[in-house]
Amino acid sequence: MTTVAPSAGAGDERAQTSNASATARAYPNIALVKYWGKRDERLMLPAAGSLSLTLDVFPTETTVTVDPGADRDRFELDGAPASEEQTGRVTRFLDLVRERAGTTARAVVRSTNAAPTGAGLASSASGFAALAVSAAAAYRLDADRLALSRLARRGSGSAARSIVPGVAVWHAGEDDGSSFAEPVDAPPLSMVIVTIDRAMKAVSSREAMRRTALTSPFHAAWISDTAQALEAMLVACRDGDFTRIGRITETNALRMHAVIQSADPPIQYLAPTSVAAFDEVRRLRAEGLEAYATADAGPNVVALARPADAEAVADALAHLGETTIAGPGPGAALVEPAGGTA
Ligand code: ADP
Ligand code: DP6
Ligand code: CO
Q: Taking every annotated instance into account, which residue ranges of this chain make up the domain Mvd1 C-terminal (predicted)?
């Protein structure tokens, strides 16, 4: 099917004929128990569940405009045409949306990330969560939050969690229908993001995760340990036990970096300054300021703190990089496009 004539009563073809457009905003999330390994790459099912905090800083905003006359999708990221690889990833995602919408109409996607792209500050999470919500609306899919989480997962696993506000657990699940994120009650948490290097990582999370699973002799141990850490983390959240939440968070992060370092060829996401940030956080704890460090697949470090301590923690880490204090943020949602018509 290449062209579609407007036909009376064909409600599901409105998207193809009306240049429908929608804009969504989504925030990055930082995992306290990390997702690092897939058991099904096509369906994007993780090898273990994970838990994160969706932030209230560094939003991604994405506008999807259906363009029935176009022969391919166009993807503009931060005001410039995205790379072929990045555009291909968006097209593969939109193909899933189109399949469900019963259309082949292409789209123009414009997105801006407030966080650096591909630097371990979860741009793929906010990016694909914003794309899932905007594309679902532009293509007129009927999707509730659970369905949007499952859909976002197909673009980037961590994006399943950015559909959800605040603390989210992503259930590993057993199939497409059971692998989604949902909210979890937790005590008040703040995060201090230390931006150490904004450069795009040399090895994407996707590629590094695959390499780790294929080559690290520790991979199986990492997955079973993470499943246990998630169980312990859910109990700690329920108990409102900040100390236990923090300990599990820091240990799980260091174990993830250890398993990544043990891949062949090895991958090292932490820079010397990142290690200095982990050391500084440990020193703060020894002095009685309770914070715990984590880092995703990149050199930027995030300290977990009680809200009342966040400013003191940020001050103590400011010599290592630009600090940003974040709290729990909203789930991905539609917004009015700036100055445009929906
Ligand atoms: P990060 O640590 O930033 O999540 P990843 O390696 O997981 O890094 O993913 C980076 C990739 O995610 C980008 O190269 C691009 O393909 C995709 N991405 C990032 N931001 C967006 C966005 N706003 N819309 C669509 N895709 C995005
Ligand atoms: C270290 O979700 O970016 O941030 O699913 O292949 O797109 P893909 O990978 P991605 O991996 C995130 C890895 C992590 C840990 C986490 O967010 O749980
Ligand atoms: Co990512």
A: 192-320
